Amino acid sequence: MQENDENSSVSLIPYYPNYETALAWYQDLQLCKQVDNIDYVYSLERLKAMYHYLDTHGECYYIQYEGILVGDVTLQDSGELSIVICKEYQNRHIGRACIQKMIERAKEKGMHTVKANIYSFNTQSRKMFQSLGFQKTAEEQYEYHIV
Questions:
Q1: Residue 31 CB burial class (10 angstroms; 0-12, 13-18, ≥19)
Q2: 147 with 126: CB under 8 angstroms?
Q3: How many other CB atoms are found less than 10 A from the CB of residue 137?
Q4: Which residue among 54, 69, 73, 85 is the one 20 to 30 A from 116 at the CA level?
Q5: Predicted structure pTM score
Q6: How many of the other CB atoms lie within 10 Å of CB of 125?
């Protein structure tokens, strides 16, 4: 899935069941620290459990930027969006391009609203989501109404 609107260097690679990509991604300790804030690498069993959950509850994609995996983005069937991008690749409009693509996927799936939980201290993400049209509905909850 190639994103051409804001950043032609961004593509989304389906997570499930892409084990060759997943194992390389989740066996890199530095990436696990940056993306998931953990000090260990994932086991194949844990990856399969994560993929099974995602496969039965929504869609998840690796974010590839200029040929490098830099994060992931998820759209759950409940309309919940989540995105994580490695620190060194933030501030490049990668997140904006991915969220716009997920809004389009939600629209294709017939969803009327997508939402995101954004920690109050994460002003950068809050500003990005608001610039895309998300409205604050609760302390750390933002929603986007699809027209």
A1: middle
A2: no
A3: 11
A4: 69
A5: 0.79
A6: 18
